[in-house]
Design goal:
- By secondary structure, the protein is an all-alpha fold.
- It contains three helices and no strands.
- Helix 1 crosses helix 2.
- The longest helix is centred in the middle third of the chain and has 23 residues.
- It is flat.
- It starts with 6 loop residues before the first helix and ends in a 7-residue tail after the last helix.
- The mean pLDDT is 78.
Length: 65
């Protein structure tokens, strides 16, 4: 069964989350979650768009020691 939450319950949960994490950390967490979702979707589609693969394929940088 899918739980059905009222608007009041959702507001209470959001206030508790704000008190626990603070506004700045919530934005940071949301950004990291979005980045993770994008990487997951690109992994499912077989595309890889990371900086490390583009740098390695271009060969413009010397290996770091």
């Amino acid at each position: 069964m899918i739980p059905h939450f009222s608007t009041t319950e959702l507001i209470i949960v959001l206030v508790i989350v704000l008190l626990l994490f603070g506004v700045g950390r919530i934005g940071k967490i949301a950004g990291e979650m979005g980045k993770g979702i994008r990487e997951f979707r690109s992994g499912l589609s077989g595309k890889k768009e990371t900086e490390s693969t583009t740098e390695a394929s271009s060969g413009s940088e010397a290996p770091k020691e």
